[in-house]
Design brief:
Phosphorylase Kinase, domain 1; 2 domains; 8 helices; 10 strands
Amino acid sequence: MTDLDLLLKLCQRLLDTDAVPVAWHPGHAGTRTLRASTGPHGEVIVKAHRSPERHTQEVHAYRTWIPTLGDRAPRLLATTDDPPAIVVTATAGVPLTERQLDPEAEQDAYRQAGQLLATLHAAGPPRLEPDWTAWLAERAEYWIHRAGDQITASRRSDIRAHMRALRDLAPLPARPCHLDFMPRNMIYSDDRVVRLIDFEHSRYDLPARDLVRLATRIWSLRPDLRESFLDSYGPLTAIDHEVMEHCAHFDALTKLCSSSSPGGRAGGQFAFPSYGHATSHPM
């Protein structure tokens, strides 16, 4: 049985026996998705998770935090633990990365994205435990070990210094986070509305971490999009900027390891993130 057949049968079992496939997507890092057409709910997305942990996180997010986004995110329709999978409403539009927008429309899209993330971060009460700064520092050691000789000794020392500095900021409140907050997960519709998808990484974490990839991969080249985003998200504090600067090194390390081929070695290929002192002051 192919992956497409499996996902279609899941949709038929969980939602509608007459469901038919519309489009297949091979997914990313083991996650597979199918867009299907149903009678009761129109087009839906069937998503098979790569692990029980990702499944649990996404189901929890949909049941507890995502409803606060209203119609700006999919709705959970069905779930199964064997295999770990969900069915959600399909979101009309295409990822923001696939739309060619004029600067004004793009700025408006980022303004909407800022409001969506602010709403998500406020969807649950802040928590001081567990200490996420300590967890991130410990997790960095795992990635350093996994990177091996892809990074030099001086790079390892620098990453560890940033993780120590991050721990020194504790205690910091954690909030519900997306943790893959990038334009590929922002769906832009023909009516110019931005909606958010893909919550399998969502959990309590440091909210400033949700801004790291935007800051290092987009805002460094497009300060106008940063300003538009913060217009609705709200101003960042000095602590936010410190968290972002330290976590930018963590993110660059995980990106290096995730993009490397299995067993591949490219010594010294670690690149310092572009989030530097020029952008590390409150805006």
